From TrEMBL:
Identification of the protein by name: Thiamine-phosphate synthase
Origin species: Arthrobacter cheniae
Cofactor details (free text): Binds 1 Mg(2+) ion per subunit.
Cross-referenced NCBIfam families: thiE
Stored InterPro entries: Aldolase_TIM, ThiamineP_synth_sf, ThiamineP_synth_TenI, TMP_synthase
Enzyme class: transferase
Family per similarity comment: Belongs to the thiamine-phosphate synthase family.
HAMAP family: TMP_synthase
GO MF, any single term: thiamine-phosphate diphosphorylase activity
Requisite cofactors: Mg(2+)
Length: 219
């Protein structure tokens, strides 16, 4: 399958939320969002059991149909299971309390995408010490407070994001309560992309919301 260049998939990165997508299905929202310009999809559902999450990931991958990379949050086992079922899934995004990134890379192999959350100078330093190629990009935030991830670190703000991104050796995608108004300032602050949840999943028209976000990013 090959490992894509982060610059191609980070600009508008959708993280799914099953409850916010309702009453629409997650694959339905994802397909619409991609038609509006989303460049990457991370399937995240903290409430789903393993079997349910595999089914969801496979369904999302089918809806995406190879147009953009599809990742899964946290669950290396779910990534492997979906691949075993023939789904076009590209990698895993892990947090600081999940399986260590170096071990994730060993498990998923050299062709898979591995993303890692980081929010402090100490976490950036640890990541910088990893062998080259272990991690493809950093998810940095929360930029703003957000209800979609109640356990997020203290909000960085755009200035805080800029300070961290300036020290990074990897491309950084900003996440946490991001709206269209944040897109251009975050790009100027050094972001390689913006990751959104509510701004698309809760939007009446996910395609239109994605289009507006991408326009703001490109402005």
């Amino acid at each position: 399958m090959g490992r894509p260049d982060p610059s191609s998939y980070l600009p508008l990165y959708l993280v799914t939320d099953t409850a916010l997508c309702s009453p629409r299905s997650v694959p339905e929202v994802v397909a619409a969002a991609i038609s509006g310009g989303v460049t990457c999809v991370q399937v995240r559902d903290k409430q789903a059991g393993g079997r349910e999450l595999v089914d969801l990931l496979v369904a999302v991958a089918a809806a995406v149909d190879g147009r953009v990379p599809v990742l899964v949050d946290d669950r290396v086992d779910v990534f492997l299971a979906a691949r075993a079922r023939g789904a076009q899934v590209h990698g895993v995004h892990v947090g600081q309390s999940d399986i260590p990134a170096a071990l994730v890379r060993e498990i998923v192999g050299v062709d898979a995408v591995v993303g890692l959350s980081a929010a402090t100078p100490e976490q950036f330093a640890v990541t910088a010490a990893l062998p080259t190629g272990t991690v493809d990009y950093l998810g940095v935030g929360a930029v703003h407070a957000t209800s979609t991830k109640p356990d997020h670190p203290a909000p960085l703000g755009i200035d805080g994001f800029a300070h961290l991104a300036a020290t990074a050796h990897l491309p950084c995608v900003a996440i946490g309560g991001i709206s269209g108004a944040d897109a251009a300032p975050l790009r100027r602050a050094g972001a390689a992309g913006i990751a959104v949840v509510s701004a698309i999943c809760a939007a009446p028209t996910p395609a239109g919301a994605a289009r507006a976000l991408l326009t703001a990013w490109n402005s």
